[in-house]
Design a protein that fits this description.
It is a single chain. By secondary structure, the chain is of the alpha/beta class. Strands 2-1-3-4-5 form a five-stranded parallel beta sheet, with helices on both faces. Helix 2 runs parallel beside helix 3. The longest helix has 10 residues. The two termini are about 15 Å apart.
Length: about 120
């Protein structure tokens, strides 16, 4: 699983909760894009929508089309009009921050990632 969030604690939390599984965290959209260009073998990508410089929307538009369905968007609730329009236009799952273990598990199950459960 790849976690992309400019708040390092989010990646650390997911890695701790899913300690039995491989979790890679990146703290910027740019770093995530670089990683995905070199290694696109992730089952799920948890990606914050609102990040400085390279947003989750940018990550979505710049990754290979076959990776887009693996993205679950993380949201703290503060959206620009562009972000709200974007989220309304894509079918991807969403997880609101702050989230708990049950919410994380539910979004992974609904994404078809049964093997990623703790």
């Amino acid at each position: 699983m790849l976690v992309v969030d400019d708040e390092p604690m989010v990646g650390q939390l997911v890695a701790k909760v899913l300690a039995a599984h491989e979790v890679v965290a990146e703290t910027s959209g740019r770093a995530a894009l670089d990683r995905l260009r070199g290694d696109s073998n992730f089952d799920v990508i948890l990606c914050d929508v609102m990040m400085p410089e390279v947003s989750g929307m940018d990550v979505y538009s710049q990754v290979a089309p076959e990776l887009r369905c693996k993205i679950v968007f993380l949201s703290g609730g503060a959206f620009t009009d562009r972000a709200q329009s974007f989220l309304d236009s894509v079918p991807n799952r969403r997880l609101s921050k702050p989230f708990d273990i049950d919410a994380l598990t539910a979004v992974l199950v609904s994404s078809g990632e049964h093997d990623a459960l703790p």
